[in-house]
Amino acid sequence: MGFWSNLFGGNEKKRSQSGSHHNKLAWIGWDMHNHILPGIDDGSQDVEQSIELIKGLQELGIHRSISTPHVMAGVHNNTPESISGAHATLQSALKNQNIDFQLHFSAEYMIDDQLDQWIESNKLCLMGEKYMLIEMSYLSESKGLFSIIKSIQDKGYQPILAHPERYNYYHNNFKIFQDIKNAGCMLQLNLLSISKYYGENVKTASLTLIRSGMYDFVGTDMHHTRHLEALKQVVSKYDVQDLLKGNPIRNANLFSDKVRNIA
């Protein structure tokens, strides 16, 4: 069986019995989606765990990261102030421990009743003063997706939809992904989606999008050490860079514009 046959089939044999995870993600440049800021959402719960996750990223070859804590009304009521405060705390710990790691921050915005207010506020936590990471509920489709995309664009920003492969309600409607792209919204892949970590249907959706060249960014979406260990397994089994070669992955050039949130 070939590489794609192994991926689409149920057999996840290792490409090499001696495969290693070390530096396998160096080609990405920036991990542009993770939850490693301490005590601010459902990701890292304290500085010690954040440091552990950062060291794990370094093992994988990632030395530059944009933390994207959730902004979700009534669940994770984060603001630019709460996010920048958590960032400063972690940045100080990195400095005190002499850990060389570029740590920036942005946010992952849920499409909910408050998102329009955030867009109009001009107080968004963006990536490079341009990119805005958005997400939807996994339970039901956000009917306002396309209007939100337009609102973001009207402000001069570029929307990125996080992990589209994980929205189960789209799995039988592949055309919706092309509609989202045609509306000017970029797509970001969760790296664990190419395995069975989120289930067989998510894996199939992610690989279908990959084969169609639909992804613009990749991210770990790492919340905790379970994600970290699973990432190590995935990159040991698969040549992720080769897998994504037909996709215009832009992580390495994410901050080609003026950097905003730099320590």
Q: Could you characterize what this model shows?
A:
The protein has 263 residues and is of the alpha/beta class. It has a single domain (20-252), classed as TIM Barrel (Alpha-Beta Barrel). The chain is 34% helix and 13% strand. The protein has nine helices and nine strands. The longest helix has 17 residues, at 80-96. The radius of gyration is 18 Å and the shape is globular. The N and C termini lie far apart (48 Å). 41% of the residues are buried.
CATH topology: TIM Barrel
Order of helices and strands: HEHEEHEEHEHEHEHEHH
Helix content: 25-40%
According to CATH, what is the class? Alpha Beta
Mean pLDDT over the full residue set: 92
Radius of gyration equals 18 Å
Structural class: alpha/beta
Output the keywords.
263 residues, alpha/beta, TIM Barrel, six-stranded parallel β-sheet, three-stranded parallel β-sheet, 9 strands, disordered C terminus
Short description:
It contains nine helices and nine strands.
Produce the secondary structure layout.
Layout: H1 3-8, E1 30-31, H2 47-59, E2 64-67, E3 70-71, H3 80-96, E4 102-105, E5 108-110, H4 115-121, E6 131-135, H5 145-154, E7 158-162, H6 175-182, E8 186-190, H7 200-211, E9 217-219, H8 225-237, H9 240-243
Parallel strand pairs: 1-2, 2-4, 3-5, 5-6, 6-7, 7-8, 8-9
GO molecular function, one term: protein tyrosine phosphatase activity
Protein name: protein-tyrosine-phosphatase
Family: Belongs to the metallo-dependent hydrolases superfamily. CpsB/CapC family.
